[in-house]
């Protein structure tokens, strides 16, 4: 495993697939917006990063690289001094300081003091999911805007906490839904918006996480449902947001089923797996283990930081204590009349997703293979980047990485819809997202795709996972209005202008220009 050097191509999860497209640093003008240069003498906005794990790296790279002309990194906030020191050293190197940046460090209890003392304009929140609501609300109340990683929060009360804080402060919350910016997903939105397949009647969405990336959620704090809300909140909020955005509609009713059927100690015992290593670091020839010493970034952020908080990033995926599901199926009825069937599997031999959108005039099908196979090296470790290993490419040859969007109207032949080139990780969307996060006020013209997301988009995404968790617990369908959040997730609440296209119930329409 090697450490990426270009922040534009750095994925937030080191075990995620790294297809060749993720290394692209130039994108198609149709999906990469243009921005005016900042006016001479304009003050850079001051940013603080709260939560300095691996996920923070993309934002630190942006603040000290491509967007350092409009944004300034001024402080760290975390419980672990080793992780703050690591990013401080990375920032210093990126800024050419010849040593660490020397930015002040604060603990979470001192969030408000940090915002005042460092004159922080924007707080970037990249902490564990269950802490988001409190940190977002406190930052808003202290006078800062917020950029928050998905998911927005994990509970109904967390949704209310953030909604109330926005209402009383009037400050801005940006959701970083980077999958909206992946050109393949933008292309599907264009198909739906154009009316090519008519009014949408149903969507089927299947997401397969493989035994490297999917397994990783069962090594980390995500394995505790109290911290992550389970994968239907932590991971699926990305996918639900895509459907909400594609349809320009909101969820109304949710029914779900799922369970822990592959990982965990009970499943290991049932399959006769025998004794397991307590942790991945140092394990020999075990394909389920993650050795932190094989990645300089992971070693510095976690293994070398354990002395401060005891957190282990490399727990065994078959150990006791896992409370999240690894197989999930969800049925969602939308307010506009469409139905979503969604499934998530966290132990697939390949990684990617398939989306089928049925409409009154035809059908659109998007298939994405992000990693065609998980193969092992000579030492028994999973190869994270098959595209860099000829033997791995050959082993995955039956399912090559790639993407394809087909559109077919009734009584007509299927045709391939073009997918523009993006920039960087997460399907070519990360670098484009960061442009909107840090310089959206300089954008030249509106985004005809309506990709920027706010806190209400975050609410509309997590509400499905929250309702699905309740449905799995009760065995009953759950209506969004029963959660007391219907007004918060409504498509056009008073004072909000929704860019983009008409709802799927209206039969589609042309994209705004």
End-to-end span in angstroms? Answer: 44 Å
Count of β-strands: 16
Low-confidence stretches: 1-9, 493-513
The strands making up the biggest β-sheet line up spatially as: 14-13-12-11-7-10-9-8-16
Structural class: alpha/beta
Major sheet summary line: 9 strands, mixed
Overall pLDDT level: 89
> What value does the Rg take, in angstroms?
22 Å
Number of helices: 18
Share of helix among residues?
A: 25-40%
> What percentage of the residues does DSSP assign to strands (E)?
15-25%
- Envelope shape: globular
Would you kindly provide a written description of the structure presented here, covering whatever features stand out?
Helices cover 29% and strands 19% of the residues. The protein has helices spanning 57-63, 81-94, 111-117, 132-141, 156-169, 183-193, 213-216, 225-228, 231-234, 236-247, 265-270, 296-301, 306-309, 390-395, 425-428, 430-439, 455-474, 486-489; strands spanning 45-50, 71-77, 105-106, 122-125, 145-148, 173-175, 200-210, 251-259, 327-334, 339-348, 351-359, 362-371, 402-409, 415-416, 453-454, 478-479. A hairpin with a 5-residue loop joins strand 13 and strand 14 (415-416). The protein is α/β, with parallel strands linked by helices and 513 residues long. The model is unreliable at 1-9 and 493-513 (pLDDT under 50). Helix 5 (156-169) packs antiparallel against helix 17 and helix 10 (236-247) crosses helix 17. The strands form two sheets. A nine-stranded mixed sheet has the order 14-13-12-11-7-10-9-8-16. A seven-stranded mixed sheet has the order 3-2-1-4-5-6-15, sandwiched between helices.
